[in-house]
Amino acid sequence: MVIGSLARGLAWLAAVAAFGCGGSGSNSSTNSGANPFVGTFTGTYAGVFTITSPEAQPQGSVAETGTFVFTAPTDTTIEVTATFAGTNGVSGTCTATADRNGDTASSDPTTQACSYSVTGGMQTNENSSSFSVSGDTVIDVLTGTFTGTNASGNYGGTFSGTWTLTPQ
């Protein structure tokens, strides 16, 4: 069913968007000079999606989990790799980049894409993220679009949600 596969894929989509921030090390925004994005995080996603084609569907909600590894090639950039093998049938790994300014970061380039497998099909997400640090927690707010193919055919839509990332 398109909706079920889409719901599973959208959770992963949100995860992909989170790739914009990266790092390893301390995650406390109070560390003087330390990059608060650097480290390995466990992520929990909560979001909504709307299938807009082949025919519009009511908005749905989705939850997902993943592991995020953040690195900081420079003081003003971060890279993140997210890995998903969630209960929603999503499987894959994606990477993304972001520009960092202290305790915040934004996707750079603004829109980034990632493809992954969803139960019975493939999906590609294009999204942008904005990251912020609160204590040791990284928050990734994202929005985007998705397209995919499964046994029922092609589908597409929009999504938005938030990843809450806590250091491991």
Set out the fold topology.
Blueprint: H1 2-17, E1 39-53, E2 60-74, E3 77-85, E4 91-101, E5 104-107, E6 112-118, E7 121-134, E8 137-150, E9 153-167
Antiparallel strand pairs: 1-2, 1-9, 2-3, 3-4, 4-5, 5-7, 6-7, 7-8, 8-9
Overview of this protein structure:
The protein has 168 residues and is mainly beta. The chain has one domain. Helix content is 10%, strand content 62%. The chain contains one helix and nine strands, in the order αβββββββββ. It has an eight-stranded antiparallel beta barrel with strand order 1-2-3-4-5-7-8-9. A hairpin with a 2-residue loop joins β7 and β8. The longest helix is centred in the first third of the chain and has 16 residues, at 2-17. The radius of gyration is 15 Å and the shape is elongated. Mean pLDDT is 78; it is low at 1-32.
- Name the beta content range: over 45%
Per DSSP, the total helix count is 1
Helix/strand order: HEEEEEEEEE
Poorly predicted ranges: 1-32
The averaged pLDDT comes out at 78
Structural class label: mainly beta
Query: Terminal Cα separation, in Å?
Result: 36 Å
Number of domains: 1
Strand order across the largest sheet:
1-2-3-4-5-7-8-9
Radius of gyration: 15 Å
Q: How helix-rich are the residues, as a percent range?
A: under 10%
**Major sheet characteristics:** 8 strands, antiparallel, barrel
Number of strand elements? 9
Shape: elongated
Essential attributes:
168 residues, mainly beta, eight-stranded antiparallel barrel, elongated
Concise account of the structure shown:
The protein has one helix and nine strands. Strands 1-2-3-4-5-7-8-9 form an eight-stranded antiparallel beta barrel. A hairpin with a 2-residue loop joins strand 2 and strand 3.
